[in-house]
Amino acid sequence: MGGLTVLAALQRSLPGEEFVYLGDTARLPYGTKSATTVRRYAAQAAQQLVARGVKALVIACNTASAFALAHLQEKFSPLPVFGVVAPGAQAAIARADSSGVLVLATQSTIAGGAYQRALTQMAPHVPVYGRACPLWVTLAEQGPQDANLTRTLLSHYLRGFVEQGPRTVLLGCTHFPVFRDELENLLDPDVQIVDSAATTAAVVAQEMAALGLLCEKRTGASNVYLATDGAARFAQVGRHFLGNEISDVELVDL
């Protein structure tokens, strides 16, 4: 579901393109699974998309990007394959000061250390903090909830970072942009929130242009939405992440 925030950003950055989106709803969440399992699932999902003739592949999941990007780049070369970790880290470092960067992500992404390594390699002098927020994924997938409940769960995982935390916060899960407004209200006004979905879309647009792969205008065909289970729920919940209605969801078996 969270990858739909990346799709929304891609649609804004690449208005001439058509997209095929696959949500692996039968096997979510990825954020609590092992690296081996995530790589296998990601390869199976990518194969389904590649078989449909895509000209580029975006891994719209931080956990899958952390564990499977290099594997998919090698497996499907020379097809361009983009992840969300490096763009998010680059944007965070560009805004960070001596107070450091706080990464909010899933349990697997934090435990795997992909963001911590990327940030440290880019700027060894910048302190990096990681906080796993597993319940935020579940909360996001329930759609709009009671404001007090949302604030309580968000505040719980921000404990220790609100008053004296880093001035840059990186949303290291594609589900988390739906909480941006609430997070801005909870954090100090001078804290900068970096959205890996928006930064990924900017990188994809730049790289696709450099490769000469961009379409200048739409051909009129609709985007294609695929799900591995629960097509009706995918359409209902997905519009909360995408910001638009979703129709004609096709069920696929990986």
Account of the protein in words:
The protein is α/β, with parallel strands linked by helices and about 250 residues long. The chain has two domains: about 5-85 and about 200-250, Rossmann fold (3-Layer(aba) Sandwich); about 85-195, Rossmann fold (3-Layer(aba) Sandwich), CATH 3.40.50. It contains eleven helices and nine strands. The protein has helices spanning about 5-15, 35-50, 60-75, 85-95, 105-110, 115-120, 135-140, 145-160, 180-185, 195-210, 230-240; strands at about 20-25, 55-60, 80, 100-105, 130, 170, 190-195, 225, 250. A four-stranded parallel sheet has the order 5-4-6-7. It has a three-stranded parallel sheet with strand order 1-8-9, with helices on one face. Strands 2-3 form a two-stranded parallel ribbon. Strand 8, helix 11 (about 230-240) and strand 9 form a beta-alpha-beta unit. Helix 1 (about 5-15) crosses helix 11, helix 4 (about 85-95) crosses helix 6 and helix 4 packs across helix 10. The longest helix is centred in the first third of the chain and has 16 residues, at about 35-50. The protein starts with a helix and ends with a strand.
